[in-house]
Amino acid sequence: MSDSVSGADRAAEGFRAVFGAGPEGVWAAPGRVNLIGEHTDYNDGFVMPLALPHTCLAAARARTDGVLRLHSGDASGGVVELRVDGLAPVAEAGAGGDRGGWAAYPAGVVWALREAGLLSGAAAGGADLHYTSTVPTGAGLSSSAALEVVTATALNELYGLGLEPLRIAQLCQRAENDFVGVPCGIMDQTASACCADGHALFLDTRELALRQVPFDLAAEGLRLLVVDTRVKHELGDGAYANRRAACEAGARALGVPALRDVAYERLEDALATLAGDETLVRRVRHVVTENRRVEEVIERLDAGATRSIGPILTAGHASCRDDFEISCAELDLVVETADAAGALGARMTGGGFGGSAIVLVEEADAESVGKAVTEAFAAAGYRAPRIFPAVPSAGARRLA
Ligand code: ADP
Ligand code: MG
């Protein structure tokens, strides 16, 4: 994978080609898959992502003139040049429907640092940044969080800000929420900033408490496949806002600050209170049972019973599909086919309406299950999916 030294060389090379001189350093931040805990992060709930070996690299150099120059080898349009003191959220700047283009993500990070009062003295001076990424974009694997987190991690070191990874995640979420205008929760940025090699990350999104849970698939003869369906259905953005609103309405109706506060043991009572609004019943049931599934997965992993999480993953998919209604035909086909082909469990991962699914398999079955999914897609007339193993990898770090 390209987050190796050669990847760092390539990023430095790209920087030199664009900006004329070498960078001060090269940093990496990964994409992620979520093992379990979907649409729970904006309900103060539990999530359990792991970082992928796929990373966004940033080669960077500090400037002293207050200018920010951004370049991505993965985007067209050349260098984007901005003034740090002129940065304003995309909506306010009236940049229109494209949310300011790709550069809004890193620009938003600099804006969030500035708004937090972290940019003064040398840190007010701007920077040159060149990006190159192996995280597929728009596949539900959080290429946007990787882009944000690598930016914040590079600037943290270049400016000597001394920010902890969790603080970096919060600033990056602020950038995506308030600068780019995407109302995401804290999971993606935390995964990219805080994950550890060979572990899944348990995150309590209310307490912002983290725990690295050992998840060494190779040692147990297991594999977690990512199946990128390569579709992204349009209704995704509107549906996300709609689901958030439903969760807030559910919490209000139940008289709790967030659905996190509905104990699994009290779910039936809560649903009885909501009876009459079947949609709300389903939305609330998903969030409450999904939080419980995260706890169950941790219990199994702590007990060394990794294989036994399979059915919990599949139950999580059914909940996303039937109660939260965020799946789609392609994701359902992955899960059904993998299940029939002998996988231990499978579910959609990420926001839904396309993007990726994960499939837990015995190593010996990885190839045949992947083949079954590819054939099922061909038979259904879908585009061929992209399938690769999710090796639990490290969070953001300096490479060179
Ligand atoms: P996801 O985060 O699931 O991949 P998003 O729609 O949230 O999908 O973010 C994708 C967007 O992030 C891209 O459209 C682009 O604007 C930006 N992006 C991600 N990686 C890069 C990159 N390497 N170079 C330029 N822009 C990128
Ligand atoms: Mg994203």
Explain how this protein is built.
With 400 residues, the chain is of the alpha+beta class. It folds into 2 domains: 2-213 and 394-398, Ribosomal Protein S5, domain 2, CATH 3.30.230; 215-389, 2-Layer Sandwich (Alpha-Beta Plaits). The protein is 41% helix and 22% strand. The protein is built from 12 helices and 12 strands. Strands 1, 2, 3, 4, 5, 6, 7 and 12 form an 8-stranded mixed β-sheet that branches. The chain has a 4-stranded antiparallel β-sheet with strand order 9-10-8-11. Helix 3 packs across helix 5 and helix 5 runs antiparallel to helix 6 (187-194). The chain is globular, with a radius of gyration of 21 Å. It binds adenosine-5'-diphosphate and magnesium ion (MG).
Which helices and strands appear, and what pairs or packs with what?
Layout: H1 5-19, E1 25-36, E2 46-62, E3 67-72, E4 80-83, H2 90-93, H3 104-115, E5 126-133, H4 143-158, H5 165-180, H6 187-194, E6 199-204, E7 209-214, E8 222-232, H7 236-254, H8 267-274, H9 278-302, H10 310-323, H11 329-340, E9 345-349, E10 354-362, H12 366-379, E11 386-389, E12 397-398
Parallel strand pairs: 3-5
Antiparallel strand pairs: 1-2, 1-12, 2-5, 2-6, 3-4, 6-7, 8-10, 8-11, 9-10
Bound molecules: adenosine-5'-diphosphate and magnesium ion (MG).
